[in-house]
Amino acid sequence: MDLSxxxxxxxxxxxxxxxxxxxxxxxxxxxxxxxxxFPVACTLFLIHTVVCFFFKDNGSSFAGMYVTGPAYLTIKxxxxxxxxxxxxQANAWLKQPDNIIKRGEYFMxxxxxLIGMNLMISAGNFLLFYIGLETASLPIAALxxxxxxxxxxxxxxxxxxFNAAFSSGIMVFGLSLLYGACGTxxxxxxxxxxxxAPMAIMAMIFVLSGLFFKISxxxxxxxxxxxxxGAPTNITLYLSTISKGAAVFALMVxxxxxxxxxxxxWKGIIWILILVTITIGNLFALRQKNLKRFLAFxxxxxxxxxxxxxxxxxxxxxxxxxxxxxVYVFSNLAAFGVISAIEDKTGKVNxxxxxxxxxxxxxxxxxxxxxxxxxxxxxxxxxxxxKLFVFKAAMSQNEVLLVFLAFLNTVIALYYYLLVVxxxxxxxxxxxxxxxxxxxxxxxxxxxxxxxxxxxxxVSCFYEYINSISFGI
Length: 473
Prior knowledge:
By secondary structure, the chain is mostly helical.
């Protein structure tokens, strides 16, 4: 092992540098300098995000344990953009008396989780994958319980860590069976040695179950609503976008790089999971009045749509998956940005509280409407094209019945997304939420999110760029 092994890990090394700078600034800056911690931290991460677009590495290191290439770099860049916009939305929340002394902890924990997710994405060996998974999961549990003086936040943190530990245990058991069947943990070696046998199939199911938990596919979704509701809104946004996006890509790599021989088995399983996830997510979202629980079940349903293109196994399906993640990040950023702005000022998160919101907060109402249109798949928001591409990818594999049932579920989803729009623009309210003044950071995040929804939706240039990538995973 020499220095050249580390040269491919530019994304991770850049994050480590940012992490160390956060620690040094938090430890040694004077009290007057710490007033600027938030803009300094956001600026450092923005520099990291921009610099990472210039990395064009391709290959493997550490004897194949770490792998990178165009598709890997693309998903990491998407996650960097999402994390940067999420950080911008955290300013008002971090200024609260209980949180202002913990600003450094927030940024450092966030960077740690992102390092873990990057390792998950680029893993070529299940040992590195598991290290990345735990590096991501443990700091997230601390972030979920960040508002430790609030009962729901502490409860959500406990539920998340217990469920994460249980799912990790299931995955490790599956890895032990996989090692027993193949004698290795390297992705390529497993793919060469595995065959359709009961032990191998059982190992695959246990391994995949751990990732299904991260993506919150039914029936591994029960942790999501309570955790999303109890966690700080900024962390809920992180869970529903960044964590899910990284897990989806890692799952895509594992399915097609480790278990291609067992494709007939796992495609049947995922076919059922897709249909059940979309349907249950939609039906339970119809019943929700708390907007964070509402978006929790919405994200469960969206996970099903993401999987719709993933399980096709074609280059078109893989491109559609990454495109869907990109659009989903922007749409959720806009929705949670509005929820965060209103919750920080008023503490209100119920849908009925949003009745008549347009009368007092027209800009926030417009941002929420655009987000709902995108999540619902209304033309010409980006969400329409993301659903169109995943349906197209599935249809190319003759999955007519699954696409038809998913399309019917889209009608249900559109109904409950429009309930939010109806509350803001049509429902009457004699005492609507007072005018909410948002800070400049949140405004920038919302403007960038809405611009992303429309720009990507109208020209679909990002999809064309992704489609031109050689998906050699």
